[in-house]
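Support reply, case 0932

Customer input (verbatim):
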Amino acid sequence: MVKDDLIKRIDQLLIQGQNVLSTKKSADLIPDYVDKGLLKGFRAKSLSFIKYLYGESHPYFKEFDECVKGQAYYETESGINILIAIKNEIENDWLISFKQMVSAEIFSDFFEMSKYLLDLKYKDPAAVMIGSVLEEHLRLLCRNNSIDITYLKNGDTIPKKADTLNADLAKAGVYGVLEQKNITAWLDLRNRAAHGKYGEYNQEQVELMYQGVLNFIIKFK
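Our regenerated output:
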């Protein structure tokens, strides 16, 4: 596809996403939700498009797949935000540059992608992405320090949650209480973003999260 075709296609997806949002319904004790059938169509077509552009290993594909799973209204909003970020990349020819850099193994760091989203004021997908990078680094630290990253439950091997990894690392003395508290706060911000609680944090907090997580990863390897 050429650039104009890509923009046309993503505009169609954004319209489809808005049509899903227009089916918003409310009920007691549960979040606002949307039509399940329309949402499934929007999810499938969007994932197919993102896979075509970036592949399944790219953060955009992973975050869309993770954030748009259920029927909640905010999940469709998250998907639309990710598509808007992708559209901006296409319009500014950043997609081509990105693919060139990745193929040359110069630009594979999720942090650069997060910073790019922050510069565009897309704090919500940036917060989710930074949190994902942090969680993976916690797993790496656990492996490097012989700390289990899974546990057994009814015979099944279950991955530990990020908060548990954080507690285990602090208990083992890999880092101190201050770092543990900072990580808890960063993970909480990530979770707020992933669950559509966009009004509970701002751009500046995500920027501080970005710098804090970056410094943490540089210090603790």
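We compared this against your earlier run and they match. Two observations from our side: The longest helix spans residues 123-144. Residues 74 and 197 are 8 Å apart (CA to CA). Please reopen the case if you see a mismatch on your end.
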